[in-house]
Amino acid sequence: MKQDERKIKAREKWVKTYIELGSITKAALRCGISRPTLYRWIKRYEKEGFTGL
């Protein structure tokens, strides 16, 4: 369960970083993930909120 919680917190951090910076590219670089990955999680966040992460 702890691993799932870590994944959720990481995804939450990615989305918050994107919201803060307003740039997919900058947020992905800062978080060390690919842009397509960030796009995927932003879409889920927009659809389901933080519960979707």
UniProtKB/TrEMBL annotation:
Q: Name one Pfam family in it.
A: HTH_28
**Gene3D superfamilies per the record?**
Homeodomain-like
Q: Boundaries of each Insertion element IS150 protein InsJ-like helix-turn-helix domain copy?
A: 11-53
Q: Which InterPro entries match?
A: Homeodomain-like_sf, InsJ-like_HTH
Give the protein name, as stated in the record.
Helix-turn-helix domain-containing protein
Q: What is the organism field in this record?
A: Draconibacterium aestuarii
